[in-house]
Amino acid sequence: MTYQSHTSSPIRSNLARVLGSPVTRTVSLLAICAAYVQGPLTKIFDFNGALAEMDHFGLHPAAFFAVAVIVFELTASAMVISGFLRWAGALALAGFTLLATFIALRFWEMAPGMDRMMATNAFFEHLGLAGAFVFVAAFDLIKGAGK
Description:
Blueprint: H1 9-19, H2 22-32, H3 34-45, H4 47-56, H5 62-82, H6 86-104, H7 114-143
Helix pairs in contact: 3-4, 3-5, 4-5, 5-6, 6-7
């Protein structure tokens, strides 16, 4: 008895065409970078809030770190979305995400309860996001930015 796939070839080829299209790639890259575009824009329009956030996480001088985070996130996101050294921007955002996750979402230090559960979920979601950036970098290095 031979194994037959439940997915017909035309469905697979149409799905591959849609998923491999430049529009899907661009929308997907915008989605993966959404927090790294929204976050800096929020910091720009509420710089006092950005300073308070840096203070909250013990990052001093707060103004330096706020500006550095804004510039870093916007630059790395632009690299990922545009394809210019996409792999480098993606790896930078993966590293940044891991670092920020271990600074901001220390669920293991929290008392049991809703806040700990929310922080735990966010921690693992951020690990997944970092993994997605590594995947983007690997794909870019293997297949190339324009392919």
